[in-house]
Amino acid sequence: MHYAAAGATAPFLPRTMNEPGLTHLSISVDDVRATAERVVEYGGKIVEESDIGNALFIRDPDGQLLELLPVSYRGKLPPKP
Q1: Would 41 be classed as within a structural domain?
Q2: Which of 55, 59, 67, 68 is the most buried (most CB within 10 A)?
Q3: Which CATH number fits the domain that encloses residue 61?
Q4: What is the pLDDT of residue 74?
Q5: 35, HSE (Cβ side, Cα atoms, 13 Å)
Q6: Do strands 65-70 and 25-29 pair parallel, antiparallel, or not at all (unpaired)?
Q7: Structure confidence at residue 32 (pLDDT)
């Protein structure tokens, strides 16, 4: 997400998972590690201590927390009604 208007952004504030509101966004990708490494090329950061082998967190260049999950994870979600 990008806000182009002058003054439309506020500085990053760290949040914990138990605070109300958006804490992170989960995204399914073909290759979790390759995607995370690509994020670093664009100024983001891998949260290495979150790596559970098949998923991990990254921070985008603005500090937003994103969870990278394998595409296979989508198949484990309940079907839409």
Answers
A1: yes
A2: 68
A3: 3.10.180.10
A4: 77
A5: 19
A6: parallel
A7: 95
pLDDT at 67 over 70: yes
Q: What are phi and psi of 47, to 5 degrees?
A: -90, 85
Q: Tell me if 19 is assigned to some domain.
A: no
Q: Report residue 6's pLDDT band, with 50, 70 and 90 as the boundaries.
A: confident
Q: Provide the residue range defining the domain that includes 58.
A: 25-71
Q: What is the dihedral of CA 6, 23, 36, 54, to 10 degrees?
A: -170
Give me the DSSP letters along 3-64. --STT---------TTSSS---EEEEES-HHHHHHHHHHTT-EEEGGG--SS-EEEE-TT--
Q: Could you tell me if residue 59 is inside a domain?
A: yes
| In-domain check, residue 55 | yes
* Count of structural domains within the chain: 1
